[in-house]
Amino acid sequence: MGWTQVGQDVFRWQDTCQVYLLRREDQGVLIDFGSGAVLEHLSGIGVRRVTDVLVTHHHRDQVQGLRHAAAQGIRIWVPPVERHLISDVDEHWRTRPLDNDYDVRQDRFSLLWQVPVTGTVPEYRTRRFGAFDITTLPLPGHTPGSVGYLADLGGRRLAFTGDLIHGEGRMWSLAATQWAYSGFHPNAGMEGVAATVLSCGLLLRERPDVLLPSHGDVVTEPGAAIARLTRLLRELLDARRRSPWDPDAMLERPWRPVTPHLVRNVTSVAQSYALLSDGGAALLLDFGYDLTTGLPGGHDRSSRRPLLASIDALRRQYGVDRVEVALPTHYHDDHVAGFNLLREVHGTEVWAPEHIAEVLAGPDRWDLPCLWYEAIPVDRVLDREGTFRWREYEIGVHDLPGHTLYASAYSMTVDGRRVVASGDQQNTAWDPERGEPEVLNYQYRNRFRVDDFVHSAELYRRLRPEVMISGHWPPFEVTDAYLEMLATEGGRLARLHREILPDGIDLEAEGFGARLSPYRSVAAPGATLRITVEARNPLPQADVIRLVPVLPAGWTADPPVLEVKADPGQSVSQEFGVRIPPGQARTERQRMAVDMTVGQLALGQQAEALVSVR
Q1: What is the distance of C-alpha 601 from the center of its chain?
Q2: What is the β-pairing status of strands 132-138 and 18-24?
Q3: Which burial class, exposed, middle or buried, applies to 18 when counting CB atoms under 10 A from its CB (0-12, 13-18, 19+)?
Q4: Which residues have CB under 8 Å from 399's CB, separation 6+?
Q5: Mean of all residue pLDDT scores within the chain
Q6: Residue 540: CB atoms within 10 Å
Q7: CA distances from 216 to 68, 144, 152, 170, 307 (A)
Q8: Tens digits of residue pLDDT in 348-379
Q9: What value, to the nearest 5°, has the Cα angle with vertex 319 and ends 315 and 323?
């Protein structure tokens, strides 16, 4: 261990990782922290106090001594996607699956005990830390959530790159780049390798003079080192692929034209579309996982990362100078993951139909799959059915249940062609000559209802699109035969469900008669929660629905029983209070339910909700 000067007022401390210190007079900012031994040797370079620590990634060798920084009141800043692996890692250790484990990420190479942090670094933006203006650049590769830092000091641009690159064109770890078990994606098992290549390309665009890695020597020739590394990584990747991979196309030409003013991002999951105004603005239809090389294993926050690389490409390819609006076809994470980052970096507004807006704004309230982790505020709530104007376009909004109850189709005329955006409703890949079927993409937990695809086929017939764009398939040229096929298949799907499910008891396709909201709550001991139960009469005649809250021992409901009469197929909402005992100990995910009876039909404990007491 010891100090090495690597730039004007920039020093490196050799530890479990390279720890870098930026000095201004007698104060300093650290990049990564290692064991924390650096704090005992500041006087050796004339530093009295460290104001901030910036972390490149969560791995233990980078942060194992971070508690010492917290103890001294040093501000700690971490990558946004990896915050919970540092400040809430106790919960990660408690809940991380270990049995039959196919999640091969190195997320367990994290702190043993959590450390509080000051906040997260602002990706794609420059902020002052201590006495320095530092830009945060997303650099996925070594981990999905890794970042790097750029600082202009002493007439040179320095890039602190974490473990993206080791020395003059090598890598500290290949194992760390395997984010998922081998599967069906072309980059399966090599997701981080491909991400490293793309991150290296994006890093070079920033024109760094020097790379300062977490392991290995200072890189004084960034172009040559990155060229060597990416050449080898591409060879390694192509050895497992059916066809060679083209990262340059992903970086330079991610957008493909549907029409001159409607373009498709082919590097994102789900696919996003940009509607272009002649005034230089763009409206995005969906924006999920940009520049994806394959999703990592696991489902915790650090496994899902939005990026904005294609926005710069939109400017280069089509002269767009602002992304004004992001519009979701539905609430699923792969369609909305980038919305908050778009707002933070580009000032993009989120517009959404009312039924989608409710889910985006309060995900904890809903018992649904594919929810994004954080609330997404909606700037403009649109009618569920109607039209709105953006720039020179009149855009129709149409309720589109099927894939999920909380979805919309959008209709518009672009460059003289009638276009409908249908999200994930169907796969728009029908080709009878090749025997390619059309898949009606229903998922029961998304609250699919038996007649949804009958109604969507009727909608398409009314709209008469010439082109249909969707989330995971290429744009589709619509024919009368295609519309007829959708009507036929929608009718067949409804008929089969009615012939297979019980006659005289209609619990809809999802099979439950009640649901509780909010689904997830956090409350203090002694608090009273207000719970709404939505219940449906599944009988062919009007009858009384009886709902009895089922609670943890010592908890009480007011009222203890709810009764309401409902017509056949009618859904009704009732509210009750849940009192948590004042002496309730801290507990996570306590369960509650309602026991449901309709007339003489006992359905049992139909709906559950979860309450954490803290």
Answers
A1: 41
A2: unpaired
A3: buried
A4: 353, 355, 384, 385, 407, 408
A5: 96
A6: 12
A7: 25, 21, 22, 9, 27
A8: 999 999 999 999 999 999 999 999 999 999 99
A9: 55
Task: Please give the single-letter amino acid code of residue 342.
Answer: L
The burial class, CB within 10 Å (0-12 / 13-18 / 19+), for 92 is buried
Interhelix angle 191-205/222-238, nearest 10 degrees: 150
Residue 71, helix vs strand vs coil: helix
How do the residues of the chain divide into helix, strand and coil, expressed in percent and rounded to 5? 25, 35, 45
Locate tokens 């233990």: which residue?
60
* CA separation for the pair 305, 81 (Å, rounded): 6
Q: Residue 25 region, left (φ>0) first, then alpha (ψ -120 to 50), else beta?
A: left
How many CB atoms within 10 Å of residue 606?
22
CA 125 to chain centre: 20
Q: Specify the 3-state DSSP secondary structure of 128.
A: strand
For the full predicted model, state whether its pTM sits above 0.85.
Answer: yes
pLDDT digits (tens, 9 = 90+) for 276-295: 999 999 999 999 999 999 99
Cα dihedral 362/367/372/378 (nearest 10): -30
H or E stretch at 498 = helix 480-500
Rounded distance, CA 140 to CA 507, Å? 45
Angle between helix axes 452-463 and 480-500 (nearest 10 degrees) is: 160
> Alpha-carbon dihedral of residues 483, 489, 492, 494, nearest 10 degrees?
-80
Q: What is the sign of the dihedral through the CA atoms of 348, 349, 352 and 358?
A: positive
